[in-house]
TrEMBL record:
Solcar repeats: 2-85, 92-175, 189-276
Keyword terms, alphabetized: Membrane, Mitochondrion, Repeat, Transmembrane, Transmembrane helix, Transport
SUPFAM superfamilies according to UniProt: Mitochondrial carrier (SSF103506)
Membrane topology: Multi-pass membrane protein
Designated name of the protein: Mitochondrial carrier protein
Length: 280
């Protein structure tokens, strides 16, 4: 299988693995970011489950299951393209991984921004909302302009996050391959090492992304805001005035709880596909 097609398929498998494992805590993150009514991630889980049933934590999963698979297929393809532009071979340096990771945001944001807008609107809703209904409401409110709400802040978030994501993964996997417990028979990191490196990448990628993700979510779910940073009523100015820097880190507990298993599953699915293709 050609390299580009291989990255698309493997990236899609990684994205699907991430969604299945991580979506419940993603719902918790969105609800905590969109509302001040939750004391902790556990409180959000209990309150949501009691009021709407435990399956409410999977609300809106169909959209990201398809879209996130596509996004990660594009993400890994963009990353590989970025490495080729930098003249990097199969094992990039940490710097090359960071630059190629940032470049991958150009591939992912055109899909990521509208699908996250729909997902966040559905996750915030307390009643049953279908993808068709959410899409119809947005389209009726402003067509393509309404569906692109939050595009710029999503691009900024994904460029910063992906730079850290891939740099952390490359460095951690390389270092773990030197440890016998994490090294496979072929000298590369074993799947245990891949899971550990993926978990580390998932945690670290959120360090620069959390404030931007918070502003994006607030802007996308509340149509009264005029922008994430600019306009008559920007999210950033209002949140910083009310809560200071602490305000833009709301939902952090759910983010990090989700990051470890979801990203371990993502890179596990990705590496499993790549290694299967390499041995086919």
């Amino acid at each position: 299988m050609g390299g580009s097609l291989r990255e698309l398929v493997a990236g899609g498998a990684g994205g699907a693995s991430m969604v299945v494992v991580g979506h419940p805590l993603d719902t918790v993150k969105v609800r905590m970011q969109a509302s001040d009514g939750y004391r902790s991630a556990l409180h959000c889980v209990i309150r949501t489950s009691r009021a709407e049933g435990p399956l409410a934590l999977y609300k809106g999963m169909i959209m990201p299951l398809g879209a996130t698979s596509a996004v990660f297929a594009l993400c890994f393809s963009g990353y590989e393209h970025g490495k080729r532009l930098l003249g990097s071979g199969g094992a990039p340096s940490v710097r090359e991984a960071a630059l190629a990771g940032a470049f991958s945001a150009l591939y992912t944001t055109p899909v990521q921004a509208p699908q996250e807008l729909l997902k966040c609107r559905m996750q915030k809703a307390t009643g049953r909302v279908t993808v068709r209904a959410a899409f119809g409401e947005l389209w009726a409110s402003g067509g393509l302009a309404a569906l692109s709400r939050g595009f710029s802040v999503t691009l900024a978030r994904d460029a910063a996050a992906s730079a850290v994501y891939f740099a952390t993964y490359v460095w951690t996997k390389r270092e773990l391959a030197r440890v016998p417990a994490f090294r496979g028979d072929d000298g590369r990191a074993s799947f245990l090492g891949v899971f550990a490196a993926g978990a580390a990448a998932g945690v670290m990628n959120w360090v620069p992304a959390i404030p931007l993700d918070f502003l994006k979510t607030r802007y996308q779910v509340d149509p009264t805001y005029t922008g994430a940073f600019l306009g008559r009523r920007p999210v950033a100015a209002e949140v910083l005035a009310a809560d200071g820097l602490r305000g833009v880190f709301r939902g952090t507990q759910a983010i990090f709880l989700r990051a470890v298993p979801a990203n371990a599953a993502c890179f596990g699915g990705y590496e499993a596909c790549v290694r299967a293709f390499d041995t086919a």
